[in-house]
Structure prediction request, 71 residues.
Amino acid sequence: MSNGKEKPERIRENLKQEEIKRNPTGNLNDSFNRNKAGNLSGLAGSLGWKGLGVLILVIGIGFIVASIFLR
Prediction:
């Protein structure tokens, strides 16, 4: 495959990255739906480091609040 054409996997990855740049909120929704199917790397990859930090913070605060109210 050294004829200069891109592999289908690489083409799919390029299309995925372009979609992430064009439509971040739709991509977030897709990531949450993928997470339900068990693909946590899709969720973490699309959120970026800031979004993942916020998600971890929200989960942590939710856990603390739930543990206080469920005593």
Q: What stands out?
A: The mean pLDDT is 77. The radius of gyration is 17 Å. The helical segments are 8-22, 24-36, 40-69. The chain has three helices and no strands.
